Write the structure tokens for this entry.
Amino acid sequence: MVRVRASLSRLPAYVPGRKPHGAIVLASNESPYGLLPGVAETLAEAVGGVSRYPDLRAVPLIEALAAHHRVEPERIAVGAGSSEVCAQLLHTVVSSGDEVVFGWRSFEAYPILTTVAGGTPVPVPLREHTLDLDAMVAAITSRTRAVFVCNPNNPTSTAVGAGALSDFADRVPEDVLIVVDEAYREYADPAAVPDGLALLGDRPNVVVLRTFSKAYGLAGLRVGYCVAPPGIAAHVRRTQVPFSVSALAQLAAVVALGEPAEVARRAALTVAERERVTGRLRALGHEVPDSQANFVWLPLGGDGENFALHCADGQVVVRPFPGEGVRVTIGLPEENDALLALAETWKG
Ligand SMILES: Cc1ncc(COP(=O)(O)O)c(C=O)c1O
């Protein structure tokens, strides 16, 4: 009998958003606006090249990212989505039994990837749907190797401000890696939510994680990256599965990065819709925390699954978190209207 790792049987499964044919899918926090200008043409031109391996070091993409963030290329490492970069970071710092602290509920990959890396997840309950940074500092022990700060937080949509975040970073020991996961940064109000890179990027134990899957509209191509101190970035490159970022993903990401005005325009449309949806849901009596992301959170507790079933009956797929609530991605205006119509007919 092959002896598999006991910890894997305790692994929670990653639950992907469902995508039934013909339904409106508001379950995976994707951009509803499709590809950015130039991406489809670039992919069509490059598709004939996929019989070859991609550039292992993703040099043009890393150079484009370095220029975009005005940092040295040595500070950038890429992966197949920021999920893979999370895993690479954990493989960089976690040895068997080491602890990884994160707010909970937060991005569901954190406990999974921590366990796969041989570490012990340390979830710290949120306070009022927001990361409890004091409690997260208090949860750090001599075994802690990393702490994830998901800002804005998935699935609760809230964010922590600059003062709280830098105060937190001051209190985390310098040998603990702080991973500021900014997957939804483009949807956040810059006056309320700090740019982790500008605020903390110079610290030797801070890594900022970004993705092309949300505002850049490339979720299906799988490309994300981190900006890190050069020594950490070098290890993140070492722990990458070789060639995990395809040539098509690298090329598309460079083109998408060259469209900042269009990215901002689309994000602003989503933000305006988010405010409309939030206002309407609140008028229906729902508690809806202030969102800084491209989704809203309905803390419906045990009623969440019933709400999600009601929506599914009306051909709108949302994402329930059993016993906690429902996450609703902001889609196109007519998709949001369909969601709101269902919210109106729901008898909770
Ligand atoms: C907070 C957060 N981080 C990272 C990711 C990973 O995104 P990807 O692996 O597609 O880059 C997600 C995806 O939902 C997320 O919500």
